[in-house]
Amino acid sequence: MMTSCSAPLLLVLALLAAGVQAAPSAAAAAAPVDTVADSCDLIRDFVNYTFCVTALRSAGPGASTADRHAHLLIAADLAAARGASARDAADAMARAERDPAARDGLEACAFLYGASSVPALRFLRGYAAVSAWDRARELLQLTGQAGFGCEAALDEAPQAKGRMAAANKEFQQLDAMTTALFNKIAVRHG
Predict the structure, then answer these.
(1) Phi-psi label, residue 157: left if phi above 0, alpha if psi -120 to 50, beta otherwise
(2) CA-CA distance, 35 to 62, in Å (whole number)?
(3) Per residue, what are the HEC states of 24-87?
(4) Inter-axis angle of helices 68-96 and 118-129, nearest 10
(5) CA 164, CA 146: separation in Å to the nearest integer?
(6) Which residue pairs, CB below 8 angstroms and at least 24 apart, start in 104-110?
(7) Are 108 and 166 in contact, with CB atoms under 8 Å apart?
(8) Over its length of 190 residues, how does the chain's per-residue pLDDT go in tens digits?
(9) C-alpha distances in angstroms, 56 versus 5, 13, 43, 78, 171?
(10) In this structure, what DSSP letter does residue 62 have?
(11) For residue 75, which of 45, 103, 43 has the smallest C-alpha distance?
(12) CA nearest neighbour of 91 among 78, 83, 117
């Protein structure tokens, strides 16, 4: 038989138990994990941490709660977009260039970005999106060709090389970020 004070005591204990169970989920909701910082920390040996964080966060507020797979897709999209922009810039500079060595080098840059790195990044992104890791891995050698190849093509044209330097460097960083994230994810998945 229950006494009159045991029923309220049981009610208080039940409410306290429910509150204790709800407290961890409320605390977790109040302080979400910053997955961008985690992903960039994981690849900081290959990519400048600040550059990585800035680049991933430029994709929007959802990036900070996205998983590493989504960060890889974001990095590939950013690298492909930067490569396409560098291709367009090199092509425009080549059309306006009077120096034959610079014009040839700039045309080579536009070709490397347009025929090698950008399409390879787009295919890699597509394969990575569906976790076709073996197919995506085969494209890694092509993705970075343009940045370094463009620099080499412009060795005889220092002024044109200077005009392409920022685009090449940013592309190389984004490609390195894509490659590093890919390697961290693909190792786990075979």
Answers:
(1) beta
(2) 10
(3) HHHHHHHCCCCHHHHHHHHCCCCCCHHHHHHHHHCCCHHHHHCCHHHHHHHHHHHHHHHHHHHH
(4) 160
(5) 11
(6) 104/153, 105/150, 105/153, 105/154, 105/155, 105/156, 105/157, 105/160, 105/161, 106/153, 106/154, 106/157, 106/160, 106/164, 108/149, 108/150, 108/153, 109/146, 109/149, 109/150, 109/153, 109/154, 109/164
(7) no
(8) 445 555 544 444 444 444 445 445 554 455 678 899 999 999 999 999 999 999 999 999 899 999 999 999 999 999 999 999 999 999 999 999 999 999 999 999 999 999 999 999 999 999 999 999 999 999 999 999 999 999 999 999 999 999 999 999 999 999 999 999 999 998 776 5
(9) 58, 46, 13, 9, 14
(10) G
(11) 43
(12) 83
Paired tokens of 56: 């991933």
Structure tokens at 35: 């997955």
Place of tokens 């966060």: 57
The pTM for the full model equals 0.82
